[in-house]
């Protein structure tokens, strides 16, 4: 799907080594963007970039929970590619457990990666974008943050928090030409959902009006739309990509 919708722009995608993040990086690249693939380990990000292939790619190691690490990625991106127009907060982890069994460590780990990580990304990226007078930030939330999932009190709270972050930042940045939106994927085939039992996966699928799980590329399409000028008058929005679940 190479329509050059984001040609000449520079994008950072966090958690880009696999799954949804890799699909987002690939689609932005196919549409002409220079793409920085960020993940915990340099070799993982490097393999992902090699899998996409071609130029306009920069793999970088970064822990999104670390302020200095996030700031460094933004700085290095601007040094390498000269600008930053698109930032996708996608990195994520799950530490599912019932309230009876969930530890404070499980809670904090999930809040740190999703909520603090996204906040650090929004802050660092918007500092560059507001100076340039343009930019689009896309935060990956989840339908779990809309509906709440049993066994995911940490994850649902973090993903709902990302919606609040998105709307507050959108209000602060709108008059500076920077848009901030969120995507809420439903059940998507990736390493994260491969950890579910086949029975739990099938039960979830059966509850989806479209009767199937989504593919990472179907989330990437929504991100490309929000990253591009096709969505030029959309900010503070939450776009659901869930096959009709929880509509
Ligand atoms: P995944 O586990 O396949 O990939 C997540 C990536 O994030 C990995 O490459 C991992 O190394 C990276 N990552 C984790 N912690 C990081 C950190 N501190 N710093 C940098 N990178 C880090 O997961 P996925 O299914 O592709 O999920 C991507 C995003 O989509 C996540 O935010 C997830 O919560 C969200 N999401 C997924 C689903 C789904 O059904 N798969 C549904 C809704 C939302």
Give short descriptive properties of this protein:
9 helices, alpha/beta, 47% helix, globular, binds nicotinamide-adenine-dinucleotide, Rossmann fold, 247 residues
What does this protein look like?
The chain has a 7-stranded parallel sheet with strand order 3-2-1-4-5-6-7, sandwiched between helices. It has 247 residues and is α/β, with parallel strands linked by helices. Helix 2 links the parallel strand 2 and strand 3. The longest helix has 29 residues, at 104-132. The protein has a single domain (10-240), classed as NAD(P)-binding Rossmann-like Domain (Rossmann fold). The chain is built from 9 helices and 7 strands; from the N terminus they run E-H-E-H-E-H-E-H-E-H-H-E-H-H-H-E. Nicotinamide-adenine-dinucleotide binds at residues 14-15, 17-21, 39-40, 62-65, 90-93, 113, 117, 140, 142, 185, 187-188, 190-193.
List the helices and strands and how they pair.
Blueprint lengths: L9 E5 L4 H12 L3 E6 L2 H11 L4 E5 L5 H15 L4 E4 L14 H29 L2 E6 L3 H4 L5 H21 L4 E8 L5 H4 L3 H9 L9 H12 L10 E4 L6
Parallel strand pairs: 1-2, 1-4, 2-3, 4-5, 5-6, 6-7
The structure holds nicotinamide-adenine-dinucleotide.
Nicotinamide-adenine-dinucleotide (NAD) binds next to helix 1, helix 4 and helix 7.
Question: In a nutshell, what does this entry contain?
Answer:
The chain is an alpha/beta fold. It has 9 helices and 7 strands; from the N terminus they run E-H-E-H-E-H-E-H-E-H-H-E-H-H-H-E.
């Amino acid at each position: 799907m190479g329509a050059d919708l984001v040609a000449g722009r520079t994008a950072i995608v966090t958690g880009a080594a696999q799954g949804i993040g890799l699909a987002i990086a690939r689609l932005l690249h196919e549409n002409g963007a220079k793409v920085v693939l960020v993940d915990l380990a340099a070799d993982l990000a490097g393999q992902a970039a090699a899998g996409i292939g071609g130029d306009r790619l920069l793999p970088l190691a970064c822990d999104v929970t670390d302020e200095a690490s996030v700031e460094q990625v933004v700085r290095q991106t601007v040094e390498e590619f000269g600008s930053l127009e698109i930032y996708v907060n996608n990195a994520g982890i799950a530490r599912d457990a019932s309230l009876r069994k969930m530890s404070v460590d499980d809670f904090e780990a999930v809040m740190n990666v999703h909520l603090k990580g996204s906040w650090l990304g929004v802050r660092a990226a918007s500092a560059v974008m507001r100076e340039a007078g343009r930019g689009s930030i896309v935060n990956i939330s989840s339908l779990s943050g809309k509906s709440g999932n049993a066994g995911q009190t940490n994850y649902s709270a973090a993903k709902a928090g990302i919606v609040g972050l998105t709307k507050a930042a959108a209000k602060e940045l709108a008059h500076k030409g920077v848009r901030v939106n969120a995507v809420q994927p439903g059940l998507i085939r990736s390493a994260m959902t491969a950890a579910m039992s086949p029975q739990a996966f099938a039960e979830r699928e059966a509850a989806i009006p479209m009767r199937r799980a989504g593919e990472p590329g179907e989330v990437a399409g929504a991100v490309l739309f929000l990253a591009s000028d096709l969505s030029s008058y959309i900010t503070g929005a939450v776009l659901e990509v869930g096959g009709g679940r929880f509509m």
